[in-house]
Design a protein that fits this description.
Strand order of the largest sheet: 2-3-4-5-6-7-8-9
CATH architecture: Beta Barrel
Shape: globular
Number of domains: 1
Number of strands: 10
Order of helices and strands: EHHEEEEEEEEHEH
CATH topology: Lipocalin
Distance between the termini: 7 Å
Helix content: 10-25%
Strand content: 35-45%
Low-confidence stretches: 1-7, 9-18
Number of helices: 4
């Protein structure tokens, strides 16, 4: 049975309150098409931060909200105790809707940056940053990426001065199948 925890949500709010910026020296993608970005993404890798610490099998589901924003539903599991975590939020564009720059909130009026820095032409993978270089995610439409794509994304992030040696490669294998059936 899923358990909704306020702790990760509070962590996001406290860490990102008012931080909708863009990491210096980076640019979000242009020609961004939200309708193609919607749907489920698997977290392939991330930089460590308190609100996802110990989480594996992480996914993000994006869908349209009635108010024109984006519904965000993040799910993950702590493999050590099987605890399923859910966090629901909302996101809105900052500026033009064809630029991959949004603000996301999981708690009240507090927003953090969601900056799409690289995106596959077919929307198979995405490189996303928060407001600074402490937050980075590699996302994919499938639970894994081929090694060449992984290395290319790491190289791109390294070129943008992200601490890629600190990336955590998220478990998305068979161990995740059981809890996904329960979620």
């Amino acid at each position: 049975m899923p358990h909704s925890s306020l702790l990760p949500t509070l962590g996001i709010a406290l860490l990102l309150a008012g931080c909708t910026g863009l990491p210096k020296g980076t640019e979000p993608v242009t020609d961004f098409e939200l309708d193609r970005y919607l749907g489920q993404w698997y977290e392939i890798a991330r930089l460590d931060h308190s609100f996802e610490r110990g989480m594996e099998c992480v996914t993000a589901d994006y869908s349209l909200r009635d108010d024109g924003g984006v519904r965000v539903l993040n799910r993950g599991v702590r493999l050590d105790d099987g605890e399923i975590e859910l966090a629901e939020g909302r996101a809105y564009f900052i500026g033009d809707e064809d630029v991959g720059r949004l603000k996301v909130s999981f708690f009240g009026p507090f927003y953090g940056g969601y900056n799409v820095l690289a995106l596959d032409d077919d929307y198979r993978w995405s490189l996303v940053a928060g407001p600074d270089r402490d937050y980075l995610w590699i996302l994919a439409r499938t639970p894994s990426l081929d090694e060449a794509t992984r290395q290319a994304l790491v190289a791109e992030a390294r070129g943008l001065d992200f601490p890629v040696e600190e990336l955590i490669w998220v478990e998305q294998g068979q161990v995740c199948d059981t809890w996904r059936k329960e979620a």
